[in-house]
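Hi there,

I know you've been waiting on this one. I reran it after we fixed the sequence typo, so this is the corrected version. Both the input and the resulting structure follow.
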Amino acid sequence: MHSPIASMTLPQRSSLLRRAAWLCAALVLIVISLSAFLRQSNAGLGCTPWPACHARAAAGEAPQEAAGPTQRGARAVHRVTASSLLVLLLGMAALAWMPTPRAGVEGRQILLALGLVLFLALLGPFTSGSRVPAVTLGNLLGGLLLFAVCVRLALPPAARSARAGPPLGRWAWTAFALLLMQMVLGGLISAGYAGLSCPQLLGCHPGAQGWLALSPWQVPGAGAGLPQYAGGVGVQWLHRLGTLAVLAAVIALALAAWRAGRRKSATVLVTLVALQTELGMVLALGALPLGAALAHNLLAALLLATVATLLPRARVLSPGL
């Protein structure tokens, strides 16, 4: 006897994969949020006395809050959610790669998502307690890209098969690349304890020692985590310049999307980039409040995924490879 899944048509299987992709995106968002909370709370954000606790964390001392019940509960939920995500993606891969007919494009995207999950799993043992910024960067970018892939996979056929004209596709790739670079800089600020290096919006002038936090393999040095930390001024300066570039690219993308009839996407883009810019200013002027830092991370994921939905795509399904 044939199972109900084996007898499904390609459109039915595609519909089931899209529903599973939305669940996958929700699980990834939970994992991203919990990872950000664990990373930021272990870094000392929100602890007392501030900012001395942040500097102690930069020196390798774990704050008392890191072993609290909230952190332990978040870590347990993170592990369960990540395991559920892996099981879901394995099921989706089996569904997509069943022969006659085979969902080729969906299958390749699911394999990409599985690759990202395995990459994050390999990073897992090194993440807790690591002071090397490269580990944080890998964890951050892997999670954000995984969320974007899941959201793109969940798009309905009409949206996925829509061809982007040259202006829309060009601006989508430009905004996507700039967002990734901006997220790298943000990750370096967080992992290098450079959040307080330049507490004013203007006036960041990196000196000879101002570029230390730009190296992903450089363990934060003396003074990291304290206000006016010289080693983090350069990455702060680049991140703020990057904000202007991202704003210009996303607004240009929103205008192109509006003209192409993607008005809902255009509205979401403008709203997200405006909120993200405002949160960045709150972080700079408000001594890195934990809630704002977590919201900044969440909005970054949503913004990257929204831009990813506008990237050009030639086809949706193929009968085989």
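Quick highlight: The chain is about 65% helix and 0% strand.

Best,
R. S.
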